[in-house]
């Protein structure tokens, strides 16, 4: 679930860099949050 959110945020970041240069700083903050969430999930592993 979190990896899906991270992927969506990454795609939005790419769109922000290409299309919306004005909101680049906000999109970068969102990208950092997505990377942190992805790393946390990676190190925790899946709980069954």
Characterize the structure shown.
By secondary structure, the chain is mainly α. 79% of the residues lie in helices and 0% in strands. It has 2 helices and no strands. Helix 1 packs antiparallel against helix 2. The radius of gyration is 12 Å and the shape is elongated. 4% of the residues are buried. The model has no long low-confidence stretch (mean pLDDT 78). InterPro entries: Lmo0937-like. Keywords: Membrane, Transmembrane, Transmembrane helix. Pfam families: DUF5670. This is Lmo0937 family membrane protein.
Order of helices and strands: HH
- Provide a count of the helices: 2
Shape field: elongated
Strand fraction equals: under 5%
The mean pLDDT is 78
Radius of gyration: 12 Å
| Main sheet record | none
When the domains are counted, the total is 1
- Structural class by secondary-structure content: mainly alpha
Question: Which ranges are low-confidence, i.e. pLDDT below 50, for 5 or more consecutive residues?
Answer: none
What helical percentage do the residues reach? over 70%
Total number of strands:
0
């Amino acid at each position: 679930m979190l990896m899906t959110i991270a992927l969506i945020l990454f795609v939005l970041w790419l769109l922000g860099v290409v299309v919306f240069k004005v909101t680049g700083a906000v999109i970068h903050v969102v990208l950092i949050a997505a990377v942190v969430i992805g790393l946390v999930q990676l190190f925790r592993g899946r709980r069954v």
